[in-house]
Design brief:
The structure holds two protein chains of two kinds. Chain A is an alpha+beta fold. Chain A has eight helices and eight strands; from the N terminus they run βαββααββββααβααα. The chains are: A alpha+beta, B alpha/beta. Chains A and B meet through α5, β8 and α6 of A and β5 of B.
């Protein structure tokens, strides 16, 4: 890999930001631009904005999906009965978001948006790549926990309840051949309920928040 | 096969063997501490073990600032509040925990309260919530089972809200673990038996759970090998220092293994049995282990098959057909339990431990909320856990 420093004498003085071009990667031809601030030896890693936007979209789908499934699937309804009214859940991608805010209201999970708020249970992805892998069903939640990619703030039995609910929500959101790869076992949802529920989640739940 | 990704962390300095306790002052000096508080319980004091530790610190510049000996079998936030107040009043700067799992958890809890300068442990429940460096802590285990001296976990009951608070953080790891033969020589045969089976369970689960990795496998393997070779001797001849030290090292290695690759179904159900029916942890581990191995067989058979070598030795391993090795491993563990039952009266069923049949549904419900369930390779629901409990009853 060859690296070309695009520096001028003035930039070398350290008063202006400079750019660093990394080219000719053997494995792909992507050209990455990183901004050097102040000192030429200081490198600011890429912001990964696209992945953050994708994660925000996926968190939105998860939140809306959870909201719909929590009012529809009897097993999930039974699970969330265990949470007190007003129980708050926050998904957080460290550092600095995106976030997903959920709360139990009137025996159902409500999607409250993608902003940060205090919550009873906080599920924190330690970095954007961990969140991306879990949200795109490349990795299951248990495996992510096992690999220390997720940290939990709050009572562990509540986190376990959430994981069980997420298994159902993900099965409604993803087809069996994808869900089966990341779950230890697919939830026992009858085929008719799964098909109609999935159609409802795709057509009304995620787009309209019903 | 290598996992796609794993983490392994074990920074605990281990002092193991004859006169190991005498090195504590030097270690504390390295850690810039000179006024430790000893955390222990009444049983340990009555057995004369605190006196042995105090004598071992003789001739040094250390001052033992205080001794907290009121640790109950299950540590709680009230106990930790009391011990932390004593730590502050006595102007201590470090902790020496002398005891079993509850004592070590208490010392870890005191360390959270002191180092995070808080009165509310609830703020730190969960994984990786601690942020401040802890005070130097030296762990001196007096049983060979929990492995708490090298684990990042503390379990502390919340007496007001009636649930067990679980804390996991690398900051909770003690700085030094001291295994001295004098500390376990007086453990009765029955307790020796079920604590050894606790260590064995840690190792078997670490070897088969979701985050198994080559490093934790090595620790787990060595731990099982030591248990097989020395457990019966330690039970029948408690004064045998070699056997005692072997078990202490096995428990420590199993602790290193499961602190990194985690435990699974046996511990999820075992914690629930302990919480609902107040049964000693190691006893439930020994009873539940073979039943849970059978339940996990679909996903873990290759791992259980490999474990026949350390569990039963090379002769047994070689004469068993490869496809029968996993089942044979389960049978070997059942044989160990039966042997310990004859030698030390270790119970073989949950009923013998005093668990009531009507509490099984409660236990199954509680187990569903246990974090260890996440790390088990096989999924399990309420009815399946209840099924395991009925078999073990």
């Amino acid at each position: 890999m060859s690296v070309k420093y695009n520096l001028t004498q003035r930039l070398n003085s350290g008063r202006m930001p400079v750019s660093l071009h990394v080219r000719s990667n053997r494995f792909n031809n992507e050209k990455t631009t990183m901004v050097l601030k102040q000192s030429p030896s200081e490198i600011k890693p890429p912001a990964k904005r696209i992945k953050k936007i994708m994660c925000a979209v996926l968190l939105f789908c998860l939140g809306r999906g959870f909201q719909t499934v929590s009012g529809m699937d009897p097993d999930v309804i039974k699970e969330i009965e265990g949470w007190n009214e007003g129980f708050g859940i926050l998904f957080e991608v460290a550092p600095g978001g995106p976030y997903l805010q959920l709360r139990k209201e009137k025996n159902r999970i409500r999607f409250l948006g993608l902003s940060k708020a205090d919550a009873d249970l906080v599920i924190q992805f330690k970095n954007i790549e961990a969140a991306f892998m879990v949200l795109t069903a490349q990795m299951g939640t248990p495996q992510a926990f096992a690999e220390h990619r997720i940290s939990v703030r709050g009572n562990l039995p509540e986190a376990m309840r959430l994981i069980r609910c997420l298994n159902y929500v993900q099965y409604y959101l993803f087809p069996a051949f994808i869900a089966g790869k990341v779950m230890k076992r697919l939830p026992p949802i009858p085929a008719g309920r799964l098909l109609s529920g999935r159609a409802y989640v795709y057509l009304f739940g995620v787009p309209l928040g019903l | 096969m290598l996992p796609a990704y794993f983490q392994f962390y074990n920074p605990v300095k281990i002092l193991s063997g004859k006169k190991a306790l005498e090195n504590i002052p030097f270690e504390l000096e390295l850690l810039n501490a000179s006024r430790p508080m000893i955390v222990t319980d009444k049983g340990v004091v009555q057995a004369g073990l605190v006196d042995i530790v105090t004598a071992a610190l003789g001739g040094s510049n250390l001052t033992i600032g205080a001794v907290y000996d009121k640790t109950p079998p299950d540590s709680s936030n009230i106990v930790i509040g009391e011990a932390a107040a004593l730590f502050r009043d006595a102007k201590c700067d470090s902790l020496i925990a002398v005891g079993g799992g509850s004592v070590l958890d208490t010392a870890k809890g005191v360390n959270i309260v002191i180092s995070e300068d808080t009165t509310d442990l609830m703020k730190f429940i969960g994984a990786d919530r601690l942020t401040k460096p802890m005070r130097p802590m030296i762990a001196v285990p007096t049983t060979a089972g929990t492995g708490s001296e090298v684990t990042l976990v503390a379990v502390i009951a919340n007496e007001e809200k009636c649930f067990k608070m679980l804390f996991t953080s690398y900051l909770l790891l003690p700085r030094v673990a001291v295994l001295d033969p004098r500390m376990t020589l007086t453990v009765p045969p029955r307790i020796t038996a079920f604590t050894a089976m606790d260590a064995l369970t840690h190792a078997v689960e670490a070897y088969s759970c979701l985050q198994k990795n080559p490093l934790s496998d090595a620790y787990a393997w060595a731990a099982i090998d030591l248990v097989r070779k020395h457990m019966i001797m330690a039970v029948t001849d408690g004064k045998n220092e070699e056997a005692r030290m072997a078990l202490a090292n096995a428990a420590l290695m199993a602790g290193c293994a499961f602190s990194n690759s985690m435990v699974g179904l046996v511990h999820a159900i075992g914690h629930a049995v302990g919480g609902v029916s107040r049964v000693a942890h190691g006893m439930t581990m020994a009873i539940l282990l073979p039943w849970c191995m059978e339940y996990n067989m679909g996903k873990c058979a290759p791992y259980y098959g490999e474990l026949l070598l350390p569990l039963a030795g090379p002769d047994e391993f070689l004469k068993t057909d490869p496809e029968k090795r996993a089942g044979r491993s389960v049978a070997v563990i059942r044989e160990m339990n039966s042997h310990l039952n004859r030698l030390a009266g270790m119970p073989l069923t949950l009923k013998d431990c005093g668990v009531k049949r009507e509490s099984l549904p409660d236990i199954a419900r509680t187990a569903l909320g246990d974090g260890a369930l996440v790390f088990n390779p096989e999924e399990s629901d309420y009815n399946e856990i209840l099924g395991i409990l009925r078999k073990a009853y």
